[in-house]
Amino acid sequence: MIGLPERAELDQAAAAQEVGAAVSGTSADQPSNPYATLAANAFASPAGDDSGLLARILSDPRMQHHAGGLLSCLQCGICTSGCPAARFGDFSPREISRRALLGDPTLLTDDSVWLCCYCYTCQSRCPRGNSVAVINQIIRGMQVESGYGLKHVALFTAWTEEFYATGLGGWPRQLLDAIADAWGDRWWNLVEHLDEMRDELGVGSLYPSEKAMGELRAIMDETGSRERLQAAEAQPRA
Amino acid sequence: MPTTTPDIAPITGRVELFRSCLVSTQYPGVEAATKWLFEQLDVEYIVNSDQTCCTGLGYYTDVVSFPTTVAVAARNACVAVEAGHPIQAYLCSTCYAINKKARDVLEEPEQRRRTNDVLKKVGREYDDAVASTVRHHHVLEVLWSRHPSIRGLVRRRLSGLKVATHPACHYCKVFPDEVLGDGEDLMLPEDLLEPTGVEKTGYYPEKGTHCGAGFRQRFVNPGMSMAVTREKLRRLAEQGVDVCVHMCPNCHIQFDRFHDVISQTAGEDYPFVHLHVQQLLALALGADPDKVCGVEAHSQNLEPLLERIGARERVSVAVVDGSAAG
Questions:
Q1: CB B274 within 8 A of CB B126
Q2: Which of A34, A198, B206, B289 has its CA 20 to 30 A from that of A208?
Q3: Averaged in consecutive runs of 10 residues, what is the pLDDT profile of chain A (238 residues)?
Q4: Strand pairing category for B162-165 and B273-276
Q5: d(C-alpha A53, C-alpha A49), whole Å
Q6: Shortest distance, CA A30 to any CA of chain B (angstroms)
């Protein structure tokens, strides 16, 4: 269910970034020191990758400039220090990097990777050239392919439907309508008059040519996007 | 404040203005203003109806797989080269990053072979000729390559207008080595506006913080999403800015559409507005706010700003060069 945050929720998120709050992610009845866990595992050898997950991540083409960076991750935490999802949510890119190095198979059923904003701050600041943003893309993709992550993408199947039908992405109306009430009259004016505005601006048709759309559908069929869409549509939404 | 963005050779001719799904459906004036600026600065360009959307929103909401995204990027590169306009100029920073990522991945023989197996079905091939011809630039880079011409084209001075940059993450952080300037303190937008007389803000706390949209987060975790946006709005308000300029339509949505919502929810005043760099630059060069910049599509009320900079009065060449009024 999509809803706009109340003032209290904004304040709560702002408070979560205070020093101390960031490391109190565990529940009150299970006090733990995250640094102790880290120290116990930080120097474990990647050679212990029994799950094959590390090898799978390292061989992904998206890691082409980052595989060496992951292998040489020194757990400095600069990724987490700049991460908006760590600051305003319960997420740690440093932990993702550590667990990826260990080939930790529980990453494939970990919902926290879905908090990443894909802002790439971790990647751009990493002194080793690692990219947790990319690792998250790989793990989310694996979760979708295994079926576990379908609940997280079910809401966005409208995007694929629209793209397949029109060759145009954009945020689908189904998504925007759920949050746009707060945007007021000027938003609804745009929705109603987009075509007239585009005419006045002389920017032509919204959609690509029929030829382009035909080629696009063939590419999506050939690369399995249709199957992915159908699997996601069969899922209840998270 | 002197400009710090490195000079580059003019990006001349044969540009394909790469259409963006979010610009097309949310702020079509950004595309129109860009075309208008290209014409003012003699950039030879086409809009190619055989180009499709880059899949960025689908990829980053994880409903579209990476092989689909790479194949679509490879196809779009083939189309641009085929049309003889191989310089893909991006309105959206996610299109920019997606296409550059595909460019790098397609340099790996195995990935290129797999992608070409897909493209074979549509009678295309991403071969060495395409790879060595296609080029990827953000629209602002194309404009910057012509920046010495801007000063003589200014028709509405923006003196006293304080402008700050929201640096787009997918321009600054995905390929930091290819950024024009410092990705942690991007000055390209403000440097482009420098000849118009704006007061530049430069670095400010939270400058590098993302917009808050986070693709899925805006819809799934609106509390986290808007808490990030609020932090940035507060910092911009502290700087006393008049306009925050954008270079990515997804950031622009987050700020323009949620600015007043967050202000009311948080009970805080953020007395400034959001525009795309190209819109503000076009206004300074005399463009019509409605017919070129499409301000009607914005959620914020831009009228006080337009009044202040004289954009509600007609301008003519005579304002500057002193010749007879046209």
A1: no
A2: B289
A3: 72 65 42 51 55 95 97 97 96 98 96 98 98 98 95 92 88 86 90 95 94 96 86 73
A4: unpaired
A5: 7
A6: 25
Domain locations in chain A as residue ranges: 43-148, 152-233
Q: CB neighbours of A165 closer than 8 A, spacing ≥ 6? A: none
- Over residues B282-306, the pLDDT tens digits come to 999 999 999 999 999 999 999 999 9
Among A residues 38-67, those touching chain B with beta carbons less than 8 Å apart:
61-62, 64-65
Query: What pLDDT does B21 receive?
Result: 96
Mean pLDDT score of chain B, rounded to an integer? 95
Residue B178 resides in a domain: yes
Same domain, B121 and B255: no
CATH number, residue B80: 1.20.1050.140
CB-based burial of residue A40 (10 Å sphere; 0-12 exposed, 13-18 middle, 19+ buried)?
A: exposed
- The distance of B228 to chain A (nearest Cα, Å) reads 7
Q: Taking 50 as the threshold, does the pLDDT of residue B276 lie above it?
A: yes
Gyration radius from chain A CA atoms: 21
Give the number of beta-carbon pairs within 8 Å between A and B: 267
Do B123 and B187 fall within a single domain? Answer: no
Regarding whether B293 and B171 lie in a shared domain, the answer is: yes
Q: Does residue A169 contact residue A176 with C-beta atoms inside 8 Å?
A: no
Domain shared by B125 and B186, yes or no: no
Instruction: Please report which confidence band the pLDDT of residue B315 belongs to, taking 50, 70 and 90 as the band edges.
Output: confident
Q: Tell me the pLDDT tens digit for each residue of B86-139.
A: 999 999 999 999 999 999 999 999 999 999 999 999 999 999 999 999 999 999
Among 1.10.150, 3.30.1490, 1.10.1060, 1.10.3470, name the CATH number for the domain at A43-148: 1.10.1060
